[in-house]
Every structure is written in structure tokens, then in C-alpha cells.
Amino acid sequence: MMEIYIGCVSPHVPALRTDHMRLVWHAPFQGEGRVRVIAWTCHCRATVYELCHASGIAYLRRTVQLEGAPEVHETYRWTFSVAEGVWVALLQGRVR
Q: What are 31-79's pLDDT values in tens digits?
């Protein structure tokens, strides 16, 4: 179930389920031109997730907002339908 907070417009990532799947996170790939962010989680949390689409592929981006510079990682590239399924699983606490 997605958590909703007063004053927040975007969803929050819920606690992990005990049977969750661990995503593999990599340093950002610099080869794409224009990246369109399709969906995102609330920026009130230290870690923000985004569903990104670029050049016919899609992936998730994770940004940890640290003092100084943010730490950014991205998942593998998939078709949009696969990435959208992973996004839904993230919002359900089934992946992280």
C-alpha cells in the first residue's frame, strides 16, 4: 500500500517487504541525450526515486540527498513496460 502524507504530492516508498528483490544499482550512464522523468517519489525523503525514459529505453534512478553533493545511481535499461513494472514494485515495497 502506498503511503500518503499531508502536504506531499508524490508517493513515498513504503517499508520493504520481507520477500523483496534487490535491484542492482550502477553509476549513471552518460550516453543518453534527452532524459524524460515520467514519475518520481516525494522529495521530502533523503532518497528520491525516478522512473526515467530515454532513447526508447527506461530505467529507475535513485538519488540520495547528502550534505554537499547528491549520490546518484541507476538500474539496468529495460523496455518501458518492464521498467514500469519495476516502478510499481518499488512503490509496493517489493524491490529496492
A: 777 899 999 999 999 999 999 999 889 999 999 998 889 999 999 999 9
**What cell was used for 77?**
535499461
pLDDT in tens, 19-32: 999 999 999 988 77
Which neighbouring-strand residues pair with 16? none
Cα 45 from chain centroid? 13
User: Which of 59, 64, 60 lies closest to 45 in space, CA to CA?
Assistant: 64
3-state secondary structure of 21: strand
pTM of the shown model: 0.89
Residue 76 sits in which domain range?
36-91
Other CB atoms within a 10 A radius of the CB of residue 62 amount to 19
Distance CA 55, CA 35 (A): 8
Residue 11, domain member (yes or no): no
Residue 42 lies in a domain: yes
Q: How many domains does the chain contain in total? A: 1
